[in-house]
Amino acid sequence: MHILQLSLRNTGRNKQRTAVTVLSMAFACAIMILFSSMMAGMIQGSERQIVEMNMGDIQIHQQGYRDDPDIYKRITDTAHILQQLAQQGIRAAPRLYAFGLMATHGTSSGAHIRGIDMQREKTVTKLYQHVAVGSWLDEAKPKAVVLGKKIAATLGVTIGDELIFVGQSADGFMANDIFFVQGILKVVSDDIDRSAVFMAEQTFRELMAIPSGAHEIVLRRPSPQTDLTQLTTQVQNLVPEYEVKNWKELMPAIARLLETADIQSLIMMSITYIAVATIILNAMLMTVFERMHEFGIMKAIGVRPWQIVRLIYAETLIQTLLASAIALIAGWWVAHYFSIHGIDMSAIMDGSISMGGLAFDPVWYTYVTYESLFTPIVFLIAMAMVAVMYPAWKAAWMKPIDALHYR
């Protein structure tokens, strides 16, 4: 018996039912391709938001600084550490932190001022590309500062406005100076949005009377393929007197959330495809019961039960492959479109939302990968093969005489 030829003919016999079954499977699969691409985009975007915007891959601090961010707890041999890291191909940048009050036009707000090495910072983060209004820091403008989005809104300032900083310097005297707003960042993370004020390293040192050292050194891996855990251990061995943590240790809740995102996708796909399996089961049951007389005659002339099972499975496989092809084209097109234009959720997110200190951009971009394209298709085929087991068993093991008299 020519199984393939017979199954092709049977698939085209009832075109309306075949079309409904194929399109139902294709629609569900295309939706899951889009969903998988959205999850991949969320993972990639979240990790990029963490690593490229602020955290870096690894950070070095003086022991106890993260629990008690005292201005005097500094990494003293910064230049030597940076030189050692550079010799091993690791990009790194020092940062200086202090707290104070930023005021303008009768309004004030607590500020977390951050002194950065503008040249080195560009090698570890992409904050300089994340300016919403105005421009990034300029070495030729030592009094220029760049603000987080929310603190700028709290102070009610815009580009060119003056800001007065008041705080306590490291020598115990009052630190105060006048700055002007050079730029306002897009959404980065909750702490940066609410309080961050970036300024040039030398300006910070003069303001806060800190001639040397740094509160933090931020590192980036030589390549994305570099093992993060091994590199953390390597850096820790290099500077055993300091605390060395990678971003997953610094933000364990977010890291765990991202690690389990794939599992969440699989759970969602399983739930969706159980519904799809019900559609397939219903369609194949109707197909089998309509053709009971045909199966009875086939068995009466000597067709064996396993040949009938193979025939029904072949018909299901043909329909599933057709649905997969349609879903692959439609799902890829939609996911690719949103990978460029994004899904703007600002209307329901009120600008942005934050979770565990991480701010999510209201424009959600998809990320198309081989996994996001083909995992839903593998799921679809597997669920279809499971769903058709009962109709195939029913047709294969029914007695010919019962099948011929089936009503």
**First-to-last CA distance:** 27 Å
Low-pLDDT sequence parts: none
Q: Indicate the proportion of strand residues.
A: 15-25%
Structural class: alpha+beta
| Overall pLDDT metric | 85
Largest sheet strand order: 2-3-8-5-7-6
Q: How many helices does DSSP assign? A: 17
The largest β sheet comes out as: 6 strands, mixed, barrel
Oligomerization category of the chains in this entry: single chain
What level of helicity do the residues show?
Answer: 40-55%
The dominant shape is elongated
Radius of gyration computed on alpha carbons: 31 Å
| Number of strand elements | 14
Q: What this model shows, in words?
A:
This protein has 17 helices and 14 strands. The mean pLDDT is 85. It is an alpha+beta fold and 407 residues long. It has helices at residues 3-11, 15-55, 78-87, 118-124, 149-155, 190-195, 201-208, 228-238, 247-250, 252-259, 261-290, 292-300, 305-341, 346-349, 370-387, 389-397, 400-404, and strands at residues 58-61, 91-104, 107-116, 131-134, 144-147, 162-168, 174-185, 196-200, 216-220, 243-246, 343-344, 353-355, 358-360, 363-364. The protein has a 6-stranded mixed barrel, surrounded by 4 helices. A two-stranded antiparallel sheet has the order 11-14.
